[in-house]
Amino acid sequence: MKKKTVIKVLICLAVLIFYLALACLPIYVQPSIAQRQADNIQAEDFYGREKGAERAKIISENGEALSERVRLIANARERIILSTFDFQSDNSGKILMAALLDAADRGVQVNVMMDGFSYFAHGWGNPYFLFLAGHENVEFRVYNPVNFLKPWKLMARMHDKYLIADDDVYILGGRNCYDYFLGEHDGYKNYDWDVLVSLPETLRQGASEQRSSLSELTEYFFSVWDGGECVTVGKNRFWSVNPSVAGAGRRLEEIYEKIKMEQSGWLEAVDYDEITVPTNRVRLVSNPVHTGVKEPTVYYIITELLSQPGKEAVFHTPYIICSDWMLRRLEEICRENPDITMMTNSVANNGNPFGAADYLEHREEILGTGLQPLMSLFRFLM
């Protein structure tokens, strides 16, 4: 290899290393929670001594997860909020888009928020997304759009996954909007859970002294939506006359007509009091919503709740990646409460390659903190 070629290769490698450093260094040092903030977190604030007004149910099956989302959208009267990390135009994704489009046609305001990296990979230039986003009653925003000129922001991703219908009910959990997570079909499936939370009329009208978790979730959504990191997409008038975009719109309308004929039960309203159970209290927590390195507020609260002595605790996470501080924190809480059990995906059934690799490398360290593994015959559990 000629000397000039070697120099060019070395320069390219140096530029690449510098670029990757700009992307990774901002998150290399992970902060711990500020003591002042930790002192304000009290475990008893998350419990209720009596049955509260909100009701809930767990959605464990992927087929039900899709049908319940369609039901919420189909019966919405005023507003739909959808926040998701990933959204694809496969079978389940098109079904959701078809339902959202029908709601917009009925005059329902539809707000969709999607992570910027996933939009770059699956939504940018996609005619189905462009048709939906172009509807007058749809506002489609992308959180932290990919900008290769700002590598220090590339790692800031939005993983929230929830759907809110009016002021009545919401679904929140770990499922993205495509076939891996939703619908009954052959092939690979991710095993995640959702919780459906419904609000009775008295709580929606403010007759209860207890603040609803739905109002907390709605406020959180708009803090991200209007926080300065989201960009509206799909409103260029060019797309309204683009043949492929118009064709995608017709296809979505056909999909919804097919749902009406073959899956009409998905569209029927249900009495949520009959399919849910009462809760003592529902509390939602979040980390800061900016694109910088965040204090681990959620992690600290979860571990604070787990550490209550004498109380059996189980936590379920699709993957677990621990910093040194997180491992020390787990050791602390397991000394306070040795009856803590963890359930997570195995390496063989982990949809996150980074999570799977990290778990494979650090499994013994995680269990060495004192956590008890939940054993199961199912391959998707640890």
Walk me through what this model shows.
The structure is a single chain. The chain is α/β, with parallel strands linked by helices. Helix content is 40%, strand content 14%. It has 13 helices and twelve strands. A nine-stranded mixed β-sheet has the order 8-4-3-2-5-6-7-1-9, sandwiched between helices. α4 crosses α9 and α6 crosses α9. Residues 375-382 have low confidence and may be disordered.
The class by helix and strand makeup works out as alpha/beta
- The radius of gyration computed from the alpha-carbon positions, rounded to a whole number of angstroms, is 23 Å
- Tell me, briefly, the overall form: globular
Which regions contain 5 or more consecutive residues with pLDDT less than 50?
375-382
Distance between the termini: 50 Å
Question: What fraction of the residues are assigned to beta strands by DSSP?
Answer: 5-15%
The helical percent reads 40-55%
Let me know the largest β-sheet: 9 strands, mixed
Mean pLDDT: 86
Side-by-side strand order of the widest sheet: 8-4-3-2-5-6-7-1-9
Count of strand segments = 12
Count of separate DSSP helical elements = 13
Secondary-structure element string: HHEHEHEHHEEEEHHEHHEHEHEHE
Descriptive key words:
globular, 3-stranded parallel beta sheet, 13 helices, alpha/beta, disordered C terminus, 9-stranded mixed beta sheet, 382 residues
